[in-house]
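INFO batch 0412 | record 1 of 1 | parsing
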Amino acid sequence: MGFCLVKVGDIIMSKIAFLFPGQGSQYVGMAKDLYDNSVEAKEMVLTANEALGINLSHILFNGPEEELKQTEYTQPAIFLHSVILASLIRTIDAKGAAGHSLGEYSALVSAGAVQFYEAVKLVRARGLAMQEAGRKNKGTMAAVIGMAQEKVEEYCKEASAEGIVQCANFNSPGQVVISGSVEGVKKGMELCKANGAKLVKELVVSGAFHSPLMASAADDLKTALDSTNFYEAKFPVYANVTAAPVADKNEIKKLLFDQLTSPVRWEETIKNMVADGFDEFYEIGPSKVLQGLVKRISPDAKCFGIDKYADVEKFL
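INFO prediction complete | emitting tokens
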């Protein structure tokens, strides 16, 4: 599935993709300038508050940080910020999208595969289910830097004798996140350190995301997915589970369910998008995490970030 840049007259057209961040990119005050400067953004924030029956905007704008970091609030907060930005951009013609974990939900809204009002309720349900799973099944996650993913997988397999542990995020070359039980992850960290990883760092998280310890959230997520209307995507969204493009509504729903306990194949996703001709990536949402990952995966790709209202104004 190669792709050549299209030449129109003397202008070479880029093939543009939207990327949407996941949990960990949040900050207190996010989306406040959007709310203050755009009637559309204000309406979307108030709609989200009404749909969820909570004052989400107060947590977004004012924190405290500890509350914003709780999964049940973090996920709808990042989602809301991202989809507002995507809806305000008028002049960027994206031909595809991808999102990191939670960001896949934002990507699907941008592609018209699920409507905003239903999606914000779905994301909140996902966040609640994952937070509860984290309470029931104590687990942790750790970043492993400077080790090939095959080696990390090998040491996770060895460490699983101590407890559940698997690769949760294949983020970029030499950056893998592992997830599972405290015992399993600690053993995995120990093995990776002993065998040459440059850095191994436990992450501050409320659960072992993208691992079998999230399985107890599956029933609640399935209920929420089954009560949400999905549509054919107007452009392909590259799924975390397969790193491949998807547009079929039934496949989209199944992959969102599988994503709960499966690894995020981000490095492979970006490589596949580049192979399919995408050469310009816009990270839509808080912070700059994905831009950094794309640059490590594909140094020649052009990367931009849209986070603040000042970023949006360039594309109105």
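INFO post-check: The radius of gyration is 19 Å.
INFO record closed
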